[in-house]
């Protein structure tokens, strides 16, 4: 499957919590503020969170994305992306709805990640881990940004590949508290097939939260959260499937 995928990862926090539908709390107002900031001018985008759904697929609670090489390494090797992430993304609503899958963990190319989008300007699904503490809104808005066509800002370029992790932009390679989108990014967003509505009636995006879990969990009473267990220091990575690495940075 030739898809451009991206990983948004740093300080992944594992936080034990019961997976009930009550855990799906999206701050729609915070997302509206990001997609209606001043660079959107007279065309703010309304984020509309659709009713949450549950998906009783415990086999998809921990999703992974890997790649394997096929063909001869000396003669046009092909990179093939594998993993159950694609099984998960296949279960979402069709475009233009954006599917937000909440899972327990995401591992992409061996690294734990906060979130992962199906593509940059392609696909309509992304996954995030739950709960994401204080960076959840930023990660959700960031992954939606990828689906709308935005690449990372501050990404290292040849020959040094030095990434600016402090860039004041939503599309920084790691979450850093900044949610700015510039005029050029807004232009890209308005070319997305996922954008609905019109100038006179208002533009909007529909986001469907889908909570993945065990069937029994969905009727359960929430348990108290048990606090932070582990913290991993990770990195952001951009990757183009189909045989060509587009950009890669580590830190
Ligand atoms: Zn990203």
UniProtKB/TrEMBL annotation:
TM stretches of this protein: 218-240
Keywords for the protein's UniProt record, in alphabetical order: Membrane, Signal, Transmembrane, Transmembrane helix
Entry-linked InterPro entries: MetalloPept_cat_dom_sf (IPR024079)
One of the record's GO molecular function terms: metallopeptidase activity
N-terminal signal peptide: 1-18
SUPFAM superfamilies: Metalloproteases ('zincins'), catalytic domain
Name of the protein in its database record: Peptidase M10 metallopeptidase domain-containing protein
Organism: Roseibium album
Family annotation (Gene3D superfamilies): Collagenase (Catalytic Domain)
């Amino acid at each position: 499957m030739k898809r451009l995928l991206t990983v948004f990862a740093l300080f992944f926090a594992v936080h034990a919590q019961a997976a009930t539908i009550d855990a799906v709390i999206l701050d729609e107002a915070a997302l509206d503020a990001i997609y209606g900031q001043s660079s959107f001018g007279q065309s703010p985008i309304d984020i509309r969170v659709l009713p949450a759904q549950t998906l009783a697929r415990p086999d998809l609670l921990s999703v992974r994305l890997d790649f394997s090489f096929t063909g001869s390494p000396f003669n046009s090797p092909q990179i093939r992306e594998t993993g159950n992430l694609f099984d998960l993304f296949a279960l979402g609503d069709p475009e233009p709805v954006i599917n937000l899958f909440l899972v327990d963990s995401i591992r992409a190319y061996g690294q734990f990640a906060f979130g992962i989008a199906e593509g940059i300007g392609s696909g309509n699904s992304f996954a995030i881990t739950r709960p994401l503490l204080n960076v959840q809104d930023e990660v959700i808005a960031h992954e939606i940004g990828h689906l709308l066509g935005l690449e990372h800002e501050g990404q290292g370029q040849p020959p040094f590949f030095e990434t600016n992790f402090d860039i004041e932009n939503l599309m920084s390679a790691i979450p850093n508290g900044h949610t700015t989108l510039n005029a050029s990014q807004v232009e890209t967003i308005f070319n997305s097939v996922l954008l609905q509505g019109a100038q006179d009636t208002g533009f909007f995006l529909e986001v469907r939260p889908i909570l993945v879990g065990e069937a029994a969990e969905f009727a359960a009473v929430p348990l108290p959260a048990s606090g932070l267990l582990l913290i991993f220091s990770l990195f952001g990575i951009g990757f183009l499937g189909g045989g060509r690495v587009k950009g890669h940075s580590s830190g």
